[in-house]
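Holo model, zinc ion. Inputs:
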Amino acid sequence: MIGYRVMVIEDQIAKEVRRTGEAPGWGHPAFTDVATSYGPCRLCLRTFETGTDRRILFTYDPFEQLEPFPLPGPIYVRENSCGRHPEHQPMPGELEELPLTFNGYGRGRLLHAQERTTDPLAIETTIQRMLGRPDVDYIHVRNTEAGCYILRIERKDDGTAS
Ligand SMILES: [Zn+2]
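Output:
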């Protein structure tokens, strides 16, 4: 078993967009409304209660501080403050139920592997298979239906194993 961390957006990003109503680093207006889809929130990774939870949509670059070339896209966070998902914990079960795309990248933002899951029981083997590849440095997980970025998975000993 390869140990890994589940990395979500920084607390600071969520704080800033909630405070300013603008996408941090981009300055685009953020959009707040009542959830019409499950999300999830990119900070706590909990899915939204449709018709009840309020969410903020904003522009975010999941490659920031990882790669020299940005690739921004839209993501959601809860309007009200929530707890950041701890890196050492696996993905929440409610997230595993979603159709997910796993993109395995090597440094330089080179896409070396791509797999899609709809079965929660397939997720751990998918992650292990990808992290077992020497050409994969980190994994981006996206929502297969919407295409939006959700989180990053990296080896615990990132930098020494590959
Ligand atoms: Zn949240």
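The two ends are 15 Å apart (CA to CA). Residues 8-78 form one domain.
Archived with the compound record.
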